[in-house]
Specification:
The complex is a heterodimer of chains A (473) and B (488). Chain A has 16 helices and 13 strands. By secondary structure, chain A is of the alpha/beta class. Chain A has a domain at 7-247: Amidase signature (AS) enzymes (Alpha-Beta Complex), CATH 3.90.1300. In chain A, the strands form two sheets. An eleven-stranded mixed beta sheet of chain A has the order 1-3-2-6-8-7-12-13-11-9-10, with helices on both faces. In chain A, strands 4-5 form a two-stranded antiparallel ribbon. In chain A, α10 (299-317) packs across α13. Chain B is α+β, with helices and mostly antiparallel strands and 488 residues long. Chain B has helices at residues 61-73, 171-187, 228-247, 293-302, 307-317, 322-330, 332-342, 348-366, 377-388, 394-407, 413-419, 428-441, 443-450, 456-468, 474-487; strands at residues 11-22, 77-78, 81-82, 85-88, 98-101, 108-116, 122-134, 138-140, 149-151, 158-164, 200-210, 220-223, 255-260, 265-268, 281-282, 289-290. In chain B, α3 (228-247) links the parallel β12 and β13 (255-260). The radius of gyration of chain B is 31 Å and the shape is elongated. In chain B, 39% of the residues are buried. The chains are: A alpha/beta (473), B alpha+beta (488). Chains A and B meet through α10 of A and loops of B.
């Protein structure tokens, strides 16, 4: 079977009887089986997927199928799907089954997407290499000794290795874009509030957003169109009307693109990554766009703001996992306090505990103003300065990450080095704006390199149309 | 030192109350689960109440409206932006591990509640703040031999917390303050005010100091008082205990004490308060809610007349005395009933008497609440009208018509009066016949009357009533009788 990169080709091949949806599902199931060693899937919904394929195939024949008929998609293991397990790759939720579905998941199903399984990730989406999963590291399909990136590592590898057409991940500081960059696929982080977070297991509520990982911009457009929009179950979801992303165009427009000088001059930037972005700047100029350096003196503030605020929110968001009403309870617990203490100590992994402790500290009496309040103020400054750039430029470009995928184990003992892998991606989450990582060639070891474009809030339509042209022209 | 040698009067007690009132909204504070006290344990719990992963709170606008109403009733400033906060702590009946509340920006601030002391003096008790929060579930430590049982029905039920200034000086004032709060809550129909069921809860902060001192004494918090009387008892006991401790040279320390209603004393609770750090921070899942002045005005329009306004109206416009006015406004439903009677009659005094005397004594006898009363306010007004028009006598109305109406509440008052033959005769032709007959019976008394023995009118009237079998309208008849006698 052909290696599909666009939903549209699948839909036209089904229509012309070149393939059937059950065959396509079988194909992906076989790939999943063949590539089990990648550890991308935590669970494959084999029977569900097979029977859905039969039903939807029929609907297609009757002309009654939804927009996403033919889409075989995987879910990051932090998205709730009624009647299915969801664990956030944590021991503490190992045998937990969700009693409801995320709004995004419901919207996928309503348009006849087939959910093929749940995908490995860093525990509670905390990590940049997928090495923090309680269920093992995910291997990069381009080089099995290298990480997938994280936290949506399973999503990126599943799309990279053609285990499904697309995946839904979540992005709090780069968790969609960074693994997409490491694996050579598209990874979109929509504007905060564009997609309902109802049913997304929270890491840091004011940063989290669901985002698609795809093999084409077109598929990102159609997925965003389906899952976006206001939701009464999420008070932070935006009421703004959803654009028809698949119809948007910026063809013929000469745009202004900024790049942040400091990102290119940064120490520790892999030489090929630097060459890669310089060539991209040239390419854009050749396409008639204006590309200019801007100064952004807050680059070194981004990681501290991010870790102060996200860990604060996480320390509270993860308090519900206490061995009380659901999930893992320590067998060594004998009373109220030991139930909570031991269940959490045994149920959470090291990185999650590190972040909970950090967050608890920054919120504690006497430190709150020095850390949380201050970080919140600097976050507002970053938003302001970013808006200033967007008042002059259409997009901001940068590498997705300072390096291509690194070796498994290389940084796992050095949290600070690991945190720096997010340095270019956290910016969009702090500012709340949209950003995408697009595959942009490979380094000397044939490892994918990602290129990031950021757009102002709710400007996804132009952003997606623009990167489509950038790749095709 | 013996108790008798202590001069309690040189001390001044300083008391502030924290009242939690459960809101009577249809659904919980941050989800659509309905709440109903007394439902089977753990039956009204959706994924939000349970704090399941991935769930988010939903605004319940009604809670905001209720809080605004209470704020307006207590003369508070209403904040324009509602910021929510998380209060973080672990407990078995707190599924999320935090409570959604308001921290630095309560919805209502800087108001007061008026109380009237026994001596009749009016006193304002300051309201520091009113904020919105959600309730936790219930832990039951005494239902099972080994385990604590948890009921999450109550988890997420909306509360308002009303915090007073330290303006209260005695148990009695606390009692009056709570009575006033409960009255307002019930008038606004936002809380049923039941302390036994826990829909109203009260903690007291109590300290004592030498009168005139410029610094408050050490504050002690007292919990677990399940009635207004117990709040009063607990406070009075605690004041006495603190004074005696100070007189004995002891040093008081900040602590939480629990009230034992059987013994009437307070005892120290396991002290864990000092160490707790709730790590408040802004709730990221609920964006701030804006309340415009126009919106506040629209809430004002929905508010009923409050007891204070009714009291003014009854005493100043309707000419009722203070006692009667107080009886009528004490319970909102009684006041509402009275107001409805008033909408059908102008005779305020009679209306007040009927509601306070006849209606209330019937309800008391039957142990009924006025909401269960079978006779409509309009029917009471009809009775009053019949009396005022001279169609029935007051005693007939009280003794015969009212009981008959209760027996058959769908009948009209007039038809009952007619069927019981209680309609008075005020037709002067009919009356003249009875009067003439009465005078004719005692011809010798006419001269006596003429000579100035005016009291003889009673004798003639008695004859008239006898002849008419009580149907003669006494007012009209006696006027006509006098007229006839004078002509003789």
């Amino acid at each position: 079977m052909e290696r599909y990169t666009h939903l549209q080709s699948i839909q036209s091949d089904i229509k012309s009887d070149k393939i059937s949806l059950p065959q396509l599902v079988e194909y992906y199931l076989k790939n999943i089986e063949d590539k089990k060693h990648l550890n991308a899937f935590l669970e494959v919904f084999t029977e569900d997927a097979k029977s859905a394929a039969v039903n939807i195939q029929q609907k297609i024949k009757q002309g009654k199928a939804g927009k996403l008929a033919g889409m075989v998609i995987g879910l990051k293991d932090n998205l709730c799907y009624k009647g299915h397990k969801v664990s956030a790759s944590s021991k503490i939720l190992e045998s937990f089954t969700s009693i409801y579905s995320a709004t995004a998941v419901e919207r996928l199903l309503a348009e006849d997407a087939i959910i093929i399984g749940r995908l490995n990730c860093d525990e509670f989406a905390m990590g940049a290499s997928n090495e923090n999963s309680a269920f093992g590291t995910v291997l990069n399909d381009a080089d099995n000794t290298k990480v997938s990136g994280g936290s949506s590592g399973g999503c990126a590898v599943a799309v990279q290795a053609d285990l499904c057409l697309a995946a839904l991940g979540s992005d709090t500081g780069g968790s969609v874009r960074q693994p997409a960059g490491f694996c050579g696929v598209y990874g979109l982080k929509p504007t905060y509030g564009r997609i309902s977070r109802w049913g997304l297991i929270a890491y840091a509520s004011s940063f989290d957003i669901i985002g698609p990982l795809t093999k084409s911009v077109d598929d990102a457009q159609i997925l965003l169109e389906v899952i976006s929009g206001a939701d009464e179950y999420d008070a932070t979801s935006s009421e703004k009307p959803v654009d028809v992303y698949s119809q948007a165009s910026v063809s013929g427009q000469k745009l202004k693109i900024a790049y942040i000088k400091e990102t290119i001059e940064m120490d520790g930037l892999q030489p090929e990554v630097k060459v890669n972005i310089e060539k991209s700047i040239e390419r854009l100029r050749a396409q008639g766009h204006t590309v200019e350096p801007v100064s952004f003196d807050m680059l070194d503030k981004l990681i501290p703001i991010y870790y102060t605020l996200t860990t604060a929110e996480a320390s509270s968001n993860l308090a519900r996992f206490a061995g009380m009403h659901y999930g893992f309870r320590s067998s060594n617990a004998h009373d109220f306090e030991s139930t909570i203490r031991k269940s959490r100590s045994e149920g959470f992994g090291a990185e999650v505990k590190r972040r909970i402790m950090l967050g608890t500290f920054v919120l504690s009496e006497g430190y709150y103003d020095a850390y949380y309040t201050k970080a919140q103020k600097v976050r507002n400054l970053v938003k302001q300065k970013t808006d200033e750039i967007f008042s002059q430029y259409d997009f901001i470009m940068s590498p997705t990450s300072p390096t291509s995928a690194f070796k498994i184990g290389e940084k796992s003992d050095d949290p600070l080095a690991m945190y720096l892998a997010d340095i270019f991606t956290v910016h969009a989450n702090i500012a709340g704006c949209a950003a995408i990582s697009i595959p942009n060639g490979v380094d000397n070891n044939n490892m994918p390199i990602g290129l990031q474009f950021m757009a102002k809030s709710f400007d996804e339509a132009r952003l997606l149309a623009f990167v489509k042209n950038f790749r095709s022209e | 030192m013996s108790e008798n040698s202590i001069d309690y009067s040189k001390y001044q007690a300083v008391i502030g109350l924290e009242v939690h009132a459960q809101m009577l909204t249809k659904s919980k504070a941050y989800c659509s689960d309905a709440y109903d006290y007394g439902s089977d344990p753990n039956t009204i719990i959706g994924p939000i109440s349970l704090g399941h992963p991935g769930t988010l709170p939903k605004h319940n606008k009604e809670v905001v409206n209720y809080a605004i109403k209470m704020g307006l009733a207590a003369h508070c400033h209403i904040a324009e932006y509602q910021y929510y906060a998380r209060k973080n702590y672990f407990y078995g009946d707190l599924p999320k591990g935090y409570q959604i509340t308001q921290d630095k920006t309560p919805i209502c601030t800087n108001g007061y509640i008026e109380i009237k002391t026994k001596e009749g003096a009016e006193k304002k008790i300051g309201i520091t703040r009113i904020h919105m929060e959600e309730d936790a579930g219930k832990s039951m430590h005494d239902q099972d031999l080994y385990d604590t049982l948890i009921d999450l029905n109550r988890a997420g039920v909306p509360l308002i917390e009303i915090v007073s200034e330290p303006d209260i000086r005695s148990g009695e004032e606390a009692y009056l303050y709570l009575t006033e709060i409960k009255k307002l809550l019930k008038y606004l129909e936002i809380c049923d005010g039941n302390m036994e069921e826990g829909s109203l809860r009260c903690d007291a902060n109590i300290s004592v100091m030498i009168k005139g001192a410029d610094k408050f004494g050490t504050k002690v918090e007292v919990k677990n008082m399940n009635s207004f009387r117990n709040v009063q008892r607990a406070i009075d006991h605690e004041i006495k205990r603190q004074i005696e401790a100070l007189e004995a040279g002891e040093k008081l320390h900040m602590e939480t004490r629990t009230f034992d209603a059987l013994k009437g004393t307070t005892a120290a609770m396991r002290s864990k308060e000092g160490a707790s750090d709730y790590r408040y921070f802004p709730e990221p899942d609920l964006p701030p809610l804006r309340i415009t002045p126009v919106y506040i005005d629209s809430i004002k329009l929905l508010m009923p007349e409050l007891p204070k306004a009714l009291f003014e109206k009854y005493t100043k416009q309707s000419g009722l005395n203070e006692y009667d006015a107080n009886v009528l406004i004490d319970d909102k439903d009684t006041a509402t009933y009275f107001e409805e009677v008033l909408s059908h009659t102008k005779n305020t005094k009679s209306a007040a008497n009927w509601v306070m005397v006849n209606v209330r004594s019937y309800l008391n006898e039957q142990a009924l609440h006025i909401k269960q009363f079978i006779i409509k306010p309009a029917q009471i007004a009809e009775i009053i009208a019949l009396i005022d028009d001279g169609k029935v006598s007051h005693s007939a109305a009280q003794q015969k018509i009212f009981p008959a109406l209760i027996e058959s509440p769908s009948s009209s008052v007039l038809s009952i009066a007619e069927s019981l033959n209680l309609i008075q005769e005020s037709n002067s032709d009919e009356l003249q016949v009875w009067i003439d007959a009465a005078i004719a019976k005692f011809p010798e008394k006419i001269a006596e009357y003429k000579a100035g023995k005016v009291s003889l009118v009673g004798l003639f009237m008695g004859e008239v009533m006898k002849a008419s079998k009580g149907k003669a309208d006494p007012k009209v008849a006696s006027a006509l009788l006098k007229e006839t006698l004078d002509k003789k």
